[in-house]
From TrEMBL:
Gene Ontology MF annotations: DNA binding; DNA-binding transcription factor activity
This protein's record includes keyword Transcription regulation: yes
Annotated GO CC locations: cytosol
Name the record gives this protein: Transcriptional regulator, Crp/Fnr family
Upper taxonomic lineage: Bacteria, Pseudomonadati, Pseudomonadota, Betaproteobacteria, Nitrosomonadales
Swiss-Prot/TrEMBL keywords: DNA-binding, Transcription, Transcription regulation
HTH crp-type domain: residues covered: 146-212
Organism field: Sulfuricella denitrificans (strain DSM 22764 / NBRC 105220 / skB26)
PANTHER family assigned to the protein according to its UniProt record, in alphabetical order: CRP FAMILY TRANSCRIPTIONAL REGULATORY PROTEIN (PTHR24567), HTH-TYPE TRANSCRIPTIONAL REGULATOR ARCR (PTHR24567:SF74)
Amino acid sequence: METSQNPNLNHLLAALPTAEFEHIAPQLELVAMPLGDVLCESGGQLQHVYFPTTAIVSLHYVMENGASSEIAGVGNEGVLGISLFMGGNTTPSRAIVQTGGYGYRLKARVLMEEFNRAGPMMHLMLRYTQALITQISQTAVCNRHHSVEQQLCRWLLLTLDRLPSNELTMTQELIASMLGVRREGITETAGNLQRTGLISYRRGHITVLDRSGLESHTCECYNVVKKEFHRLLCDGRNRQDPSASHD
């Protein structure tokens, strides 16, 4: 395990007031979240909720024929497991680790006990859920109305926001699966972005060379999602350690 990890790297845990955080801290378990690990299948019920720190989890909707696309991502800004406290217990989406790393898991029972106290944990989780709904809604609109280039730029930027560097480990096949488009479309688009000097792509590694240029090529969807997360969650980060990362 990485000894440098701490719960404050997750923005939701960092936003909890000291008393509420100390109440659950002994129950938080640091876990490795390797690339490709399936945390929950469609229709499955989570026994734990996950607060990623350096990992990113992709929520996929899987069709009857096996095709799938990403409906949202969960990184250091959020939590996997909103179905538990929203009352549905299960969801039709699959949760799979998109970027390997670490996170903290908490038994579902412990989260629900804290949530049902109707205190800061409940209010924070509900605000996060609203932000996540915005991300899901905006993804649906983006996939319907915007070009593959705009979708790819949006996805790259949202992923970068959850990482400590400008490098991503991701194949074109996986990106195509995330966006629900043909691999050829991703190959052509990534090639165009590389030729214009915005990214460098080599053997499954993507390096963003010009973030501002990438932002100029994306659609409004990126800023809509980013601003909503900021509006709903940023003012709560009152317990974050100075060593923790910021947006």
